[in-house]
Design a protein that fits this description.
Organism: Citrus sinensis
Number of helices: 22
Radius of gyration: 25 Å
Strand order of the largest sheet: 6-5-18-17-19-26-20-21-24
Helix content: 25-40%
Largest sheet: 9 strands, mixed
Protein name: Acyl-activating enzyme 18 (Peroxisomal)
Strand content: 15-25%
Structural class: alpha/beta
Length: about 600
């Protein structure tokens, strides 16, 4: 049993890394706060410590551990749930995307039961499960989606053979065009920043920036070049790091009516070959090398070994590829030269297709056998954007960073979440394990940061972020969460768990609910849980889940119940850090847009 916060003294503070004079000053501040909090429960004491910014991001991690664990020393998690570390402000919750929408629509949907976004969150979430059409009608007006032909309705349930109904029937659009066009409703302008990036280990160079107009012109240039090499409907693979060029190629393939095949750049030749075969790809975009920590690693050679498919090869450095290409392959420079004499190379008429048309083929990990192809339709990006709007509170002006790859589900998710929200996508062309990456996050003004737990462990173990300013930001180990949150004055961490088939999450945290480290607080918007028995028959109870939502889902509990929760989800545990420029709060949500697996 550790010490209670009232028992912590100068000696303890020195032991965790403070100098004697610092410890004495800190102890005086701590004692004053504690003396003034007599009668308050632990969560109120912690809330006051954070609100007054008693501890700083540069304080030793041991100090943050000492205070957190001593405040909650007598806390009974079996009765009270996991200890809370972040608390939404009622006034500021109304400024979130979801909270603002609830203030407008809550009284109409819930009547006299509606109070405010904080008090009525669970009721509103339940309403969205029972009336998903009403929620999606709101969301579609809040994100950058423009239909070429409007849907006949939000959800058509008449065809009983389609479980969950048909979403947005009759609608036609090009979701890549939606990403690129300005939106006066969102205040997403042509000169708004769309992408920020920096090359590997170029810490002292300025952050590169590209506006939405510049992005649109470059995407259309590539789309015109694609038409010189491929036939409409062809599947075209991308196997390269998630650079600004990869993002341009991805959007161009979809804009021009082709299908992206996502392949992670970490795969060996045999794994690449399998995915090319399964997807029936007609070509592939790749790089000559991958640059990590100043070192070059082969990539083109793996693609060449995977098969005779025609490759377009980009240079990792400079304008010319640094390797001899096969006869059938072309360099990026030569590929773009195909449109040198095009009358309007920076304009391209989008190929409009029904909303259920496939735009991207992703894959399961393949760790237990041949990888399963997972098609994304144009519904999938809409769901990504809806979750970013409702749960992460993504807005124009935000800068979203998540070190990942287009070969994994988070690559397309962050791409669409950013562009359909009018935010900027932040890309680092190097390893996220080094200090240079942290410097990029600082310099580019990242306001929403996503990551996997292993990444945080690496930062914590190497202390490579020491001295950097991440206070504009927001893992699933509690102590890792504590370490990272402390770097940003305890901004909220939004835990999420979902799958490639869903294009988002089904359980998350929320900026309209208190948050605990390593825990979820709600099912996502419009998502209802069903618990199945061993025969696959639903239990006719919801009481247990209601209790879990109230007391926060812990990672351990989720592990136990995932075996029971509906269908076959590909589970992915991830986190977001959310900047709260308007106070202290957190968001989370999404909705089921039918089966997309």
């Amino acid at each position: 049993m550790g010490k209670n916060i009232r028992e912590v003294g100068v000696v303890d503070l020195v032991k965790v890394g403070l100098k004697v004079d610092e410890a004495e000053d800190f102890d005086n501040i701590l004692k004053q706060l504690i003396d003034g909090s007599k009668g308050l429960d632990p969560k109120e004491i912690w809330k006051e410590l954070v609100a007054r910014k008693v501890f700083k991001p540069w304080h030793p991690h041991g100090l943050h551990q000492l205070l957190y664990y001593s405040v909650y020393n007598d806390w009974d998690a079996s009765i009270n749930g996991p200890p809370l570390y972040w608390f939404p402000s009622l006034d500021q919750s109304k400024l979130t995307n979801l909270g603002h929408a609830m203030e407008i629509h809550g009284p109409k949907f819930l009547g006299a039961m509606y109070k405010d976004p904080f008090t009525s969150f669970s009721l509103f979430q339940k309403f969205t499960v029972e009336h998903p059409e009403a929620y999606w009608e709101i969301v579609l007006k809040e994100i950058s989606v423009k239909f070429h032909e409007a849907p006949k309705c939000i959800l058509d349930r008449t065809d009983k053979s389609k479980h969950g109904g048909t979403w947005l029937p009759g609608s036609v659009l090009n979701v890549a065009e939606c990403c690129l066009l300005p939106s006066s409703r969102l205040r997403k302008e042509d000169d708004s920043v769309a992408v920020v990036w920096r090359e590997d280990r170029c810490d002292d160079s300025s952050v590169n920036r590209m506006t939405y107009k510049e992005l649109r012109e470059r995407v259309m240039l590539v789309a015109n070049a694609l038409d010189t090499m491929f036939s409409k409907g062809d599947a075209i693979a991308i196997d390269m790091p998630m650079t600004v060029h990869a993002v341009i190629i991805y959007l161009a393939i979809i804009l021009a009516g082709y299908v992206v095949v996502s392949i992670a750049d970490s795969f060996a030749a045999r794994e690449i070959a399998t995915r090319l075969r399964v997807s029936k790809a007609k070509g592939i975009f790749t790089q000559d090398f991958i640059l990590r920590g100043g070192r070059k690693f082969p990539l083109y050679s793996k693609v060449a070994e995977a098969g005779p498919l025609k490759a377009v090869v980009l240079p990792v450095i400079g304008d010319d590829v640094g390797i001899q290409l096969r006869q059938q392959d072309v360099s990026w420079k030569d590929f773009l030269s195909c449109v040198d004499y095009h009358p309007g190379p920076k304009y391209y008429p989008p190929v409009y297709r029904p909303v259920d048309s496939v735009i991207n083929i992703l894959f399961s990990s393949g760790t237990t056998g041949e990888p399963k192809a997972i098609p994304w339709t144009q519904l999938s990006p809409i769901r990504c954007a809806a979750e970013a709007w409702g749960h992460i509170d993504m807005k124009v002006g935000d800068v979203y960073c998540w070190p990942t790859n287009l070969g994994w589900v988070m690559g397309p998710i962050i791409l669409f979440s950013s562009f359909l929200s009018g935010a900027a996508l932040a890309l680092y062309h190097g390893s996220p394990l080094e200090r240079s990456f942290g410097k990029f996050v600082q310099d580019s003004g990242v306001s929403v940061f996503g990551y996997g737990p292993s990444l945080v462990k690496a930062w914590k173990n190497t202390n490579c972020l020491q001295g950097l300013d991440w206070t504009k930001k927001e893992t699933s180990n509690v102590d890792d969460d504590l370490w990272l949150a402390s770097k940003a004055y305890y901004k909220p961490i939004i835990e999420c768990c979902g799958g490639t088939e869903l294009a988002s999450s089904y359980i998350q945290g929320s900026m309209l609910q208190p948050q605990a480290f390593g825990a979820f607080s709600t099912a996502t918007m419009t998502t209802g849980f069903v618990i199945l028995d061993e025969l696959g028959v639903p239990y006719m109870i919801n009481l247990v889940l209601v209790k879990w939502v109230y007391s926060l889902y812990t990672s351990e509990l989720l592990t136990d119940c995932l075996m029971l929760i509906t269908r076959k989800f590909t589970s992915v545990g991830c986190q977001y850090i959310r900047e709260c420029t308007y106070g202290d709060m957190v968001t989370s949500s999404s909705g089921l847009l039918g089966d997309i697996s």
